[in-house]
Automatic annotation (TrEMBL):
Keyword field contains Secreted: no
Residue stretches making up the ABC transporter domain: 18-269
Example GO biological process: peptide transport
Molecular functions (GO terms): ATP binding; ATP hydrolysis activity
Family: Belongs to the ABC transporter superfamily.
Keyword Transit peptide assigned: no
CDD domains cross-referenced by the UniProt entry: ABC_NikE_OppD_transporters (cd03257)
Organism from which the protein derives: Micromonospora inaquosa
Protein name: Methionine ABC transporter ATP-binding protein
Short name of any one Pfam family annotated for the protein: oligo_HPY
Membrane topology of the entry: Peripheral membrane protein
Keywords: ATP-binding, Cell membrane, Membrane, Nucleotide-binding, Transport
Length: 343
């Protein structure tokens, strides 16, 4: 079977557009085996935005690279799991078919986007290159489409700026160019990996607004990877919180903000300033993420968790499904949620 390009809404009956099932990825290095992704499961439907959130090193980018089929192998190896796109497991597809999916079906804006532009070519040429190579467009058509794409991402005076070089654009405008390149082949899923990290706060907000607008206009599904819970509120439908290569809490945005059901999510929320609460005390999560070559026993979060009990040290917490369809990988998910409501 091959993965044929189909409309965004075309998902297998009852299935999701994209679904990760129990994905495990490890890095085999001279120092040992790092278990980087440890059973990640999440899904995405047409037109919706899932925010994937977690501290540095939690495995957000590696998961995205696995979806794109661009893991650095070796040292990275997918140990087990499935990545279903329109019901077909991409992990079992030959490289040629994965290449077809990349960019055309699922595109990615990379974390180091600003350095990904080639300094010696005009931005319009770089956008057009994808169109010429992948969509077989003529130079003239690719140029026309590049201007349209620059317009789409709201670069002022696109037609005049198409011959400008990357250094002639501000950081925010360069990020818009990267978004235009990702959209060139009209993907159904856009993975945005920390798209605003290198930008100042005002520009960050503008880029997030742009991504939200584009998602609506193009009916694209989006995975928004970030370590900043503050930026996702107005953009995402659901949030998957990652810790040590696993989704520890998964819920719709409103529920998570109202009452987190995992101590790690609660810690993340308490460490961001809230405009609606006066005189709040901000806290940080104590300790550091674990060494992925020596993940703690039981619950990997236990050395840092304010709710820890002996059972957390002894027993691995499987996903607990809460009443409203949320999941939390915590032995005390209900108690943590109730405690969050009470505060
Ligand atoms: N090439 C590699 N070799 C060995 N380990 C790697 C390699 N690439 C990533 N890792 C490890 O995989 C883990 C997850 O990395 P990943 O880049 O997915 O984190 P992240 O959640 O995206 O973090 P950040 O917020 O910093 O981008 C990290 O512990 C990292 O050290
Ligand atoms: S299982 Fe225990 S250690 Fe882990 S998050 Fe829940 S309370 Fe904390
Ligand atoms: Mg990353």
């Amino acid at each position: 079977m091959t993965v044929q390009p189909t409309p965004a809404s075309a998902t297998p009956e009852g299935g999701h557009l994209l679904e990760l099932r129990d994905l495990h990825v490890e890095f085999r290095t001279n120092e040992g085996v790092a278990r980087v992704i440890n059973g990640v499961s999440y899904h995405l439907d047409a037109g919706e935005t899932l925010a994937v959130l977690g501290e540095s090193g939690s495995g957000k980018s590696v998961t995205a690279q696995a979806i794109m089929g661009i893991l650095d192998t070796p040292p990275a190896f997918v140990r087990s799991g499935q990545i279903l796109y329109k019901g077909e497991d991409l992990l079992t597809r030959p490289e040629e078919q994965r290449r077809q999916v990349r960019g055309k079906e699922i595109a990615m804006i990379f974390q180091d986007a600003l350095s990904a532009l080639n300094p010696v070519f005009p931005v319009g040429w770089q956008i057009g290159e994808t169109l010429r190579q992948r969509a077989g467009m003529s130079r003239a058509d690719a140029r026309r489409r590049a201007i349209e794409l620059m317009d789409l991402v709201k670069i002022p005076g696109a037609a005049k700026r198409i011959g400008d070089y990357p250094h002639q654009f501000s950081g925010g405008m360069r990020q818009r160019v990267m978004i235009a390149m990702a959209l060139a082949l009209d993907p159904k899923v856009l993975i945005a990996d920390e798209p605003t990290t290198a930008l100042d706060v005002t520009v960050q907000a503008q880029i997030m607004d742009l991504l939200a607008d584009l998602r609506r206009e193009l009916n694209m599904a989006m995975i928004l990877i970030t370590h900043d819970l503050g930026v996702v509120a107005g953009v995402a439908d659901r949030i998957a919180v990652m810790y040590a290569g696993r989704i520890v809490e998964h819920a719709d945005v409103r529920s998570i903000y109202k009452a987190p059901a995992h101590p790690y999510t609660k810690g993340l929320l308490e460490s961001i300033p809230r405009l609606d609460v006066r005189g709040q005390e901000l806290s940080t999560i104590k300790g550091l993420p674990p060494n992925l070559m020596r993940i703690p026993s039981g619950c990997p979060f236990h050395p840092r968790c304010p709710y820890v009990q002996q059972v957390c040290v002894d027993e691995f917490p499987h996903d607990l499904v809460l009443g409203d369809g949320r999941t939390s990988a915590c032995h005390f998910a209900q108690e943590v949620r109730d405690d969050s409501v009470a505060r």
